[in-house]
Amino acid sequence: MFDGTPCHTLYVKNLNDKIKKIELTRQLYAMFSTYGMVLDIMVSKAPKLRGQAFITYKDISDAANALKRMQGFPFYEKAMMISFAKRESHVITQAKKYVPPKDERTLAKETNAKLAAKKKPAGDEEEPAATIYVENLPDEANESMLNLLFSQFPGFKKSRPIPAGGKAFVEFADPGAATSAKDALQGFKVTPDRPIKLTYAKN
């Protein structure tokens, strides 16, 4: 089978189109993130795109490994058909163009310094907040990847990666919603060897 020219994005077809979009996205992320850092998953319910998805990895080698391992894998009673996408995802093309401006990098350093100064001694109990502070992310983690991870939880509002890399803020509607996501994703491995650390953001 010809799988196309290797790139960061996989084209997956023959998916069960009766599965709800959010559930399909969650299940695809759970399966494909075991092979590397997934930056984006695009699932559409448009008539011409039903039963199809595009999965974008940070590294081409991870995409190639996932293609090899998951080719023909039975998913909701249908064997997945996977190939490299004909065109790169906008997530990759934009990432290649983006260079953080100097003032943005400076702001990130100041933000990190403030957060470090506000950290409580070990053992202190955290006060719940509507915003989660995420640490130990890969430097390339972006808004699309964070939204993919956290939007599965009720009350999710938005994510804000810190340009310096490795950290982000994720906002929820209220502390209760933030707590549910924090408890569920504490230690979640966005790559096979990188568990994330979640704490409540301090005002």
TrEMBL record:
GO CC list: spliceosomal complex; spliceosomal snRNP complex
Keyword terms, alphabetized: mRNA processing, mRNA splicing, Nucleus, Repeat, Ribonucleoprotein, RNA-binding, Spliceosome
Residue ranges of domain RRM in the record: 8-87, 130-203
SUPFAM superfamilies: RNA-binding domain, RBD (SSF54928)
Location in the cell: Nucleus
Chloroplast as UniProt keyword: no
Domain of life where this protein originates: Eukaryota
GO MF, any single term: RNA binding
SMART domains: RRM (SM00360)
PROSITE patterns xrefs: RRM
One Gene Ontology term from the biological process aspect of the record: mRNA processing
Family matches, as Pfam families: RRM_1
InterPro entries on file: Nucleotide-bd_a/b_plait_sf, RBD_domain_sf, RRM_dom
Family: Belongs to the RRM U1 A/B'' family.
PANTHER family: U1 SMALL NUCLEAR RIBONUCLEOPROTEIN A/U2 SMALL NUCLEAR RIBONUCLEOPROTEIN B
Full protein name: RRM domain-containing protein
Native organism taxonomy: Eukaryota, Metazoa, Chordata, Tunicata, Appendicularia
